[in-house]
């Protein structure tokens, strides 16, 4: 029997440490190499991108991860400052968590499609239930709760209503990962939450309207717009 030499018989070995965690470790080493002390500024985001040859979102995830463990403090309009943590924590070496920007990338891939399918296959119960999640969101905002249960339930309901079990499971898994994430709340602290919240309510209403009208394209586009505004709020949170 002959086999083609071009076909690899096994998958290549890829590093298991998450890219943001590896990048965090490299930034930590850079701080030590340069002898930077607590309170001093880290190299700018642009400099870190070119030094470490990774994307801006990865640098941002790495900085948030370093902030969680106290190795860095990110100050809006100032930049990232060296924190007091002296050792690189093992929790960052073996984490299997996808970083917040990686999670958002997956949401971009899944949720506009989920909204379009939900509009196409709209079941009667869905619109009322979606409306209830928006009312709940408004209550959370009015009461000053830090939770985003209304937001989560809105997205999970659409995933359920899309009628594709694989898409539903992937989106549910994503939101579970976000709830377990230590990085996500840290990142949210940097976001102008009130500004984002009132925009989010309006965007949810647009998505709901498109689903009600069974307009798959409008539902897809409204979800895409909503995710873009989440991404923009994160981008604004980071000093360039
Ligand atoms: Zn939302």
Molecular structure report:
It contains ten helices and two strands. The longest helix is centred in the C-terminal third of the chain and has 22 residues, at 216-237. The chain has a two-stranded antiparallel ribbon with strand order 1-2. The termini are far apart. It folds into two domains: 19-92, Arc Repressor Mutant, subunit A (Orthogonal Bundle); 100-237, Four Helix Bundle (Hemerythrin (Met), subunit A). The chain has helices spanning 19-33, 45-52, 56-68, 100-120, 124-142, 149-161, 165-180, 183-190, 193-212, 216-237; strands at 72-75, 79-82. By secondary structure, the chain is mostly helical. Helix 4 packs antiparallel against helix 7 (165-180), helix 4 (100-120) runs parallel beside helix 9 and helix 5 runs antiparallel to helix 6. Strand 1 (72-75) and strand 2 (79-82) form a beta hairpin. Bound molecules: zinc ion.
Spell out the blueprint of helices and strands:
Elements lengths: L18 H15 L11 H8 L3 H13 L3 E4 L3 E4 L17 H21 L3 H19 L6 H13 L3 H16 L2 H8 L2 H20 L3 H22 L3
Antiparallel strand pairs: 1-2
Helix pairs in contact: 1-3, 4-6, 4-7, 4-9, 4-10, 5-6, 5-9, 6-7, 9-10
Bound molecules: zinc ion.
The site of zinc ion has 6 residues, from helix 6 and helix 9.
Order of helices and strands: HHHEEHHHHHHH
Which architecture of the largest domain does the CATH hierarchy give at level 2? Up-down Bundle
Which regions have little confidence, pLDDT < 50, spanning 5+ residues?
A: none
Q: How many individual helices? A: 10
Strand content: under 5%
Q: How does the major sheet shape up?
A: 2 strands, antiparallel
Number of strands: 2
CATH superfamily of the largest domain: GntR ligand-binding domain-like
- CATH top level of the largest domain is Mainly Alpha
The CATH topology assignment of the largest domain is Four Helix Bundle (Hemerythrin (Met), subunit A)
Q: What structural class do the secondary elements suggest?
A: mainly alpha
Bound molecules: zinc ion
Going across the major beta sheet, what is the strand order? 1-2
Helix content range of the residues, please?
55-70%
In angstroms, what is the radius of gyration?
21 Å
Molecular shape: globular
Separation of the first and last Cα atoms: 58 Å
Count the domains: 2
Mean pLDDT across every amino acid position: 87
